[in-house]
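agent> Task received from the user: take the single chain below, predict its 3D structure, and emit structure tokens. No templates, no multimer pairing.
agent> Plan: (1) validate residues, (2) run structure prediction, (3) serialize to tokens, (4) report one or two observations.
agent> Step 1 OK, no nonstandard residues flagged.
tool_call: predict_structure(input=
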Amino acid sequence: MSVRILALVGSLRAGSHNRQLAEAAVQLAPEGAEIELFEGLAEIPFYNEDIDVEGSVPAPAAKLREAAQATDAFLLFSPEYNGSIPAVLKNAIDWLSRPYGAGAFGGKPVAVVGTAFGQFGGVWAQDETRKAVGIAGGKVLEDVKLSIPGSLTRFAETHPADDTEIAAQLTEVIARVHEYAGETAAA
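)
tool_result: status=success, residues=187
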């Protein structure tokens, strides 16, 4: 069974280590798993019920919802900004949580991973992301985690895809998301 996984990256910086980690995930996806790295989170306006009106949802938000509806699972990559979740990722979660009761997460498996410069690899932000996604209706995979500390030094000269240890850990994360998505689809 083919499983579609939508990857959302909470950093907009072109050289972001979390973006590189997401690119590595795309490369490492096993047969039967397709990971789409969503582009365009920067263009999505902050969530506001006044503009979330059927038939006139801003095009970038509608594009995100369409991609999310067409996916079987989610893989979110979160750095840590001031001890918490980046606004761009939280905004995407807010858009995908609506319309109330029928949001795009709708019980689909969601794993949250990431890297940060600090010694804990962004654990606080990733925990906050799991919390928000769970409230938004996603089936948070609490046992599927990857927090990589020391990103600035670890990936200074090495892309995450070329780091053997990280590639192995990320491959395991993707395999678990693939497995959970297959179970959810079969249920």
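agent> Step 4: summary for the user.
The first strand starts at residue 3 and ends at 9.
agent> Done.
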